[in-house]
Amino acid sequence: MAELFFLFRYHNDKLIYNIGAIKKSQKAVIADDSLNEKLRNFSALQPTRQNNEYINMKLTIVIFTILIAAGITMTRTHCYYTGKKSGHFDGTKFFNPWNRDEKSFFDVLKWKFTRDEEPWPDTISSFPKHHPQESVDSGHWRASFVTHATVLLQTGKVNILTDPIWSERASPMQWAGPKRTHEPGIDFDHLPAVDIVLISHSHYDHLDIPTLRKLRDRFNPEIYCGLGLDAYLKKYGIPAVAMDWKQSVNTHGITITFQPVQHWSGRTLFDRNKTLWGGFVIESPAGTVFFAGDTGYMDFKPLAQQYGAFALALLPIGAYEPRWFMKYSHMNPEEAVQAHLDLNAKYSMAIHFRTFQLSDEAIGRPEKDMETALKKLSVSNQRFIIPVPGESLLIPSDDLAKQKEIE
């Protein structure tokens, strides 16, 4: 089981529309953009080509894709971590020691063939592009949302990118697989000099080889990732530093620590959990930032106990339906708001939504569910921000200091 299964509903965008749209005939769920004034420019959802003959065509292509993927995978040489056993590594695979309720291959098939997904737009929406500064004041953090889990973090003269992906699709091939629904909020050519890249795990929507190659050729940044991914990246000529959970590195005047989150890894049908996943804590004079990457809900309070109040948390809010299947690896909006509270975060920025269709909820559902969750848990929408691509958030360190004085 791996991210290749995302190809199932995207094999040929010109011929096939998803089964969910077929089932719903002319019905389309359109996001209530009044929930967030900034989202008014998103394209309305317009399901098309709703014809039952596409079901049989889709099933045929699914089977064909599985066979092709298996053949490609078995002919490639994979390098994995071969270290000693630990509390989260059994000698062959990594695991979440606090929760091993992972879904099986048959669960994936059950979801794929019984799913009730909402239609997403075929077109790509765009927003005014952000042109970030080369640096910011050393007493500030600036977070600029690119798309999905890609955020440009800046403090002083240090520029950091999280899970960078500028490709059109989150896929091993650019003619099939989940296709982005809006353009990156920062053009690649307008990036400031990137010093550090953080890779949370190996899934295609978080680890994009074409983007990493472009970053290597242009900036040659330091790249940090989980155990095993360094060997994988080395095959593509991309140097990286592998980190275990709780391991720290000091660089550019900041401290980066790889922390446990609840997820899994895999890029083919046969390499599930062969590389380690995680989130990153970044400590600097301007305050501490937490980048969760991808995660199901877990107890985040120990991080707040260890690091104190976070200046900023980057928390995923999308790809959470159906809950019976997605709950283990993806938080829903209410769980993300609870994580914000657990972390005692000054601000949180939503990530991992509206870019690639990876699950069954409608494109605008996360924002709508976030509004409900924020009200339920009494959190201001000025503290947990749902950004549009290119939106930037500036956090002065003295703002965090004032919060600590009040507490």
UniProtKB/TrEMBL annotation:
InterPro entries assigned to the protein according to its UniProt record, in alphabetical order: Metallo-B-lactamas, RibonucZ/Hydroxyglut_hydro
SUPFAM superfamilies: Metallo-hydrolase/oxidoreductase
Pfam families reported in the protein's UniProt record: Lactamase_B_2 (PF12706)
Domain named Metallo-beta-lactamase: residues: 159-353
GO cellular component: cytoplasm
Protein name per Swiss-Prot or TrEMBL: Metallo-beta-lactamase domain-containing protein
Organism name: Candidatus Auribacter fodinae
Lineage of the organism: Bacteria, Pseudomonadati, Candidatus Auribacterota, Candidatus Auribacteria, Candidatus Auribacterales
